[in-house]
From TrEMBL:
<keyword id="KW-0732">Signal</keyword>
<protein>
    <recommendedName>
        <fullName>Protein takeout</fullName>
    </recommendedName>
</protein>
<dbReference type="GO" id="GO:0007623">
    <property type="term" value="P:circadian rhythm"/>
</dbReference>
<comment type="similarity">
    <text>Belongs to the TO family.</text>
</comment>
<feature type="signal peptide">
    <location>
        <begin position="1"/>
        <end position="34"/>
    </location>
</feature>
<dbReference type="Pfam" id="PF06585">
    <property type="entry name" value="JHBP"/>
</dbReference>
<dbReference type="InterPro" id="IPR010562">
    <property type="entry name" value="Haemolymph_juvenile_hormone-bd"/>
</dbReference>
<keyword id="KW-0090">Biological rhythms</keyword>
<dbReference type="InterPro" id="IPR038606">
    <property type="entry name" value="To_sf"/>
</dbReference>
<dbReference type="GO" id="GO:0005615">
    <property type="term" value="C:extracellular space"/>
</dbReference>
C-alpha cells in the first residue's frame, strides 16, 4: 500500500496525519458486540500446539484479506479494501535537506484484491505478528497539493496524480496486547512497523508548476526515469504512512473480531 508514493521525502521531523474514510459500510449500524458472537465461517482457527501452525495462520490471514476485499458484514468502520478510499493524507516536514508541505485528498487505492499472504507468524510469547505480504500491482489516484523538493527538483503545484508501484513485498511487524471482553480474548493492536521493497514505479503528477506544460512533462519524465532513487528517498515517509493506515484498520478489525477465533489456545488470562 502506498498512500505516500508521491511524498518524495524522508527524514525525521515529520507529521503524517491521516483521515481515513472507508467505503461502503458506515458507522451507522448499532453496537457491534452482537455481530460476532459466533465465529464467522471465513475465519480459519489455528492452534499454537498444532504441527503446522505457521501454514495454518498464513491461510487464516489470507482468508481475512480475501473477505476484506469485498467488505465484512457487521464490521464497523472498515469498508471494502479494494477499492480503498482515504479522504486525506497530510505530510508536513520542516527543516532539513528536503522539506515539504503536501496533502493528498480523495485518494482511491486499488489492487488489494490480489494480495498474497506469504507467511504469517504469531508469537506464542508476546502475541505479536510478523506478516509477509506480496502485492503484484497497486494503483493510487487522488488530488495532490504540494510545495517541496525531491532530489534536486522543486515540486510545486496541485492537480490530479496517480502512482503505480509494482512487485511490492511488505513485511509488517505488529505488537499486540491481549485483553478480555464478553468471554473472549481480543488483540489490542498497539503498533506496527513496515518494511517493503518494490520492483517498479510509474507515476504522474498533473498541473505541476501551475500549468507550465514543458516543465511538467520533463519533471514527470525525470521522476519516472529515476523511480528507484525517488522511491528510496521517500521510503521512510511512505513506510510511516502505510503504518498509520494499517494500524487504524487492524485496530478496528481486532477490537471487533475476537483473537481466539484466529488462535484458539491464546491464554485467557491477558498478557
Ligand atoms: C502548508 O500548506 C497549507 C495549504 O497550502 C497552508 O495552509 C499551511 O499553512 C502550510 N503549513 C506550513 C507549516 O507551511
Ligand atoms: C489498548 O492499548 C492502548 C495503548 O496501550 C491503551 O491506551 C488502551 O486502553 C488499550 N485498550 C484496551 C481495550 O485494552
Amino acid at each position: 500500500m502506498s498512500s505516500a508514493y508521491w511524498n518524495l521525502w524522508s527524514s525525521v521531523p515529520r507529521v503524517v496525519q491521516l483521515g481515513l474514510v472507508f467505503g461502503l459500510l458506515s458507522a451507522s449500524l448499532p453496537s457491534t458486540c452482537a455481530s460476532f458472537e459466533t465465529k464467522p465461517d471465513f475465519i480459519k482457527t489455528c492452534r499454537f500446539d498444532q504441527a503446522n501452525f505457521v501454514d495454518c495462520s498464513t491461510e487464516s490471514v489470507q482468508g481475512l484479506f480475501d473477505k476484506l476485499v469485498t467488505g465484512i458484514e457487521g464490521l464497523e468502520h472498515v469498508g471494502t479494501i479494494d477499492p480503498m478510499k482515504i479522504s486525506k493524507i497530510r505530510i508536513l516536514q520542516g527543516d532539513g535537506p528536503v522539506s515539504v508541505n503536501a496533502s493528498l485528498s480523495k485518494v482511491v487505492v486499488t489492487g488489494f484484491a490480489s494480495t498474497k499472504v506469504v507467511r504469517n507468524v504469531v508469537s506464542s510469547k508476546d502475541f505479536g505478528w510478523e506478516t509477509h505480504i506480496r502485492l503484484p500491482k497497486m494503483r493510487l489516484e487522488g488530488n495532490y497539493h504540494m510545495q517541496g523538493r525531491i532530489l534536486v527538483i522543486p515540486l510545486n503545484g496541485h492537480g490530479k496524480c496517480w502512482f503505480e508501484p509494482s512487485g511490492m513485498d511488505i513485511i509488517m511487524r505488529t505488537t499486540t496486547d491481549l485483553y478480555q471482553k464478553d468471554g473472549h480474548v481480543y488483540y489490542n493492536v498497539t503498533a506496527t512497523k513496515v518494511d517493503y521493497t518494490i520492483s517498479g514505479l510509474r507515476l504522474h503528477m498533473g498541473n505541476l508548476f501551475e500549468g507550465v506544460k514543458v516543465l511538467e512533462d520533463s519533471t514527470n519524465q525525470y521522476l519516472n526515469d529515476n523511480w528507484r532513487p525517488v522511491s528510496e528517498a521517500l521510503k521512510p515517509i511512505i513506510a510511516k504512512t502505510i503504518e498509520d493506515i494499517l494500524l487504524a484498520i487492524m485496530q478496528n478489525i481486532f477490537h471487533q473480531l475476537p483473537a481466539d477465533y484466529f488462535v484458539a489456545d491464546l491464554p485467557q488470562g491477558a498478557s
